[in-house]
Write a structure and sequence with these properties.
By secondary structure, this protein is an alpha/beta fold. It folds into two domains: 1-80 and 154-209, Rossmann fold (3-Layer(aba) Sandwich); 86-150. The protein contains eight helices and nine strands. It has helices at 45-52, 75-78, 96-104, 111-119, 135-143, 145-148, 165-180, 208-219; strands at 5-16, 19-30, 34-38, 60-65, 68-69, 81-84, 153-157, 184-188, 199-202. The protein has a five-stranded parallel sheet, with helices on both faces. Strand 1 (5-16) and strand 2 form a beta hairpin. The longest helix has 16 residues, at 165-180. The chain is globular. The protein starts with a strand and ends in a 6-residue tail after the last helix. GO terms for molecular function: ATP binding; ATP hydrolysis activity; transmembrane transporter activity. InterPro entries: AAA+_ATPase, ABC_transporter-like_ATP-bd, ABC_transporter-like_CS, ABC_transptr_haem_export_CcmA, P-loop_NTPase. One of its GO terms (biological process) is cytochrome complex assembly. Residues 7-225 form the ABC transporter domain.
């Protein structure tokens, strides 16, 4: 069962390089909810996730965290959020365990770190330098951050990239458990991730560029020949 409203976006507009990526975008994320971002490449999925993480500020509109306007002060919600980008932010000179300790702000002897690594089948590699990891192992290390420290909202950009089927199942499991505890998740992915009763937000609906292109195609008589 979904809880009360946690995170909201009201009339959000994102402009990059003079181009309007999306405008007038609204969402309402409740406790326990999963929100899947949809749309073709370039429709703004990654831009929205970065905005919700506080890395990019909206040109117009508001971000509201638990009924508090946090648009100009993203620190209000950043401490409650895990952001996993489509690239792995790994320090190659550190070991697997050292990387996770660095990300979580915990000491290497904290048992929670090994528990997180164990869930993603990375514990046997805890002393391995990160520069020796495969792409799949690097992704599993990155995802271990979700379990190393508790945050109520997970923002995941292509979280399953580089994962095999078994590892995707591990990811699905942690998302399910997170939601059962009242946590929420927003993610964008080109690979299917099975979650129960997700809500969906298609960014193409808020993209003036895509809407304009579609309208031009539909009005072009030659395109129908």
């Amino acid at each position: 069962m979904l809880g009360s409203s946690l995170f909201q976006g009201k009339d959000l507009t994102c402009i990059r390089g003079g181009r309007t990526v999306f405008l007038g975008l609204n969402f309402n994320l409740a406790k326990g909810q999963a929100l899947v971002l949809e749309g073709p490449n370039g429709s703004g999925k990654s831009s929205l996730i970065r905005m919700l993480s506080g890395l990019v500020r909206p040109r117009f509109g508001k971000l509201v965290w638990q009924e508090q306007d946090a648009t100009k002060d993203p620190e209000i919600f950043q401490k409650h959020i895990h952001y996993i980008g489509h690239r792995n932010a790994i320090k190659p000179v550190l070991t697997v365990l050292e990387n996770l300790a660095y990300w979580s702000g915990k000491t290497k002897d904290d048992p929670g770190l090994e528990d997180a690594l164990d869930h993603f089948r990375m514990l046997p590699l805890k002393h391995t330098p990160a520069n020796l990891l495969s792409s799949g192992q690097s992704r599993r290390l990155t995802l271990s951050r979700l379990l190393a420290s508790e945050r109520s909202v997970w923002l995941l950009d292509e979280p399953s990239v580089g994962l095999d089927v078994a590892s995707v199942s591990l990811l699905e499991e942690v998302i399910k458990t997170h939601r059962l505890k009242g946590g929420s998740v927003i993610f964008a992915t080109h690979s299917p991730i099975q979650v129960e009763n997700p809500d969906r937000l298609n960014l193409q609906d808020y993209s003036p560029l895509y809407n304009k292109e579609l309208l031009e195609i539909e009005n072009d008589e030659e395109s129908w020949i």
